[in-house]
Design brief:
- It contains one helix and eleven strands.
- The protein has about 170 residues and is mostly beta strands.
- A five-stranded mixed beta sheet has the order 2-11-10-5-6, with no helix packed on it. A three-stranded antiparallel beta sheet has the order 1-4-7. Strands 3-9-8 form a three-stranded antiparallel beta sheet.
- Strand 10 and strand 11 form a beta hairpin.
Length: about 170
């Protein structure tokens, strides 16, 4: 079964990554008996990918860069998030980090980058950290199956929070 979208046949793709209809319950909803609030403590607004001086993307408008490029290795950043238990009982909370990449190469609408679990008593806060590898987590597959880092605006989603992040050269 083909899970990827196919523009030639107008096939939208399967799985949550390509779903555009109304959401009944978001992914992970109801995993805790308490209530939690998120606050973004640290996250970059821009990530720059260093390229060689003679790289073709320096002279033309590229929508993506091959992941195999050496300039892409070991390129990452951290996201720190404050999570507060605003409920009346202690509980564990699973924090999901999603991204919505720019619309290139039939990219998914949204996909899961990672998750962390935190246990908090009522009215207590904790810090959750995510380490994001640009080439691994912010890449998409082109029509031939090659991994590409999509340049342009990405949106990070954590619960109801949204954070814009621009990948540039």
């Amino acid at each position: 079964m083909n899970m990827r979208p196919d523009p030639a046949t107008n096939y939208p793709g399967r799985t949550y990554r390509f779903y555009t209809g109304p959401t009944v319950f978001p992914f992970g909803h109801g995993l805790s008996c308490s209530q939690f609030k998120h606050h973004l403590h640290q996250a970059p607004k821009f990530v720059s990918i260093p390229l060689e001086e003679k790289h073709t993307c320096r002279s033309t408008k590229c929508k993506s860069i091959d992941v195999v490029e050496q300039s892409c290795s070991n390129l990452g950043f951290n996201i720190h998030l404050r999570v507060k238990n605003v409920g009346k009982i202690s509980g564990s909370h699973t924090v999901f980090l999603f991204t919505s990449p720019p619309s290139v190469h039939n990219s998914p609408k949204k996909h899961l980058l990672g998750f962390e679990k935190v246990y908090l008593t009522p009215k207590r806060e904790g810090i959750v950290k995510f380490n994001v590898d640009v080439c691994k987590h912010l890449s998409v597959h082109d029509g031939l199956g090659n991994r590409k880092v999509a340049l342009g605006p990405h949106v990070l989603h954590i619960g109801d929070l949204k954070h814009s992040l621009t990948v540039r050269i």
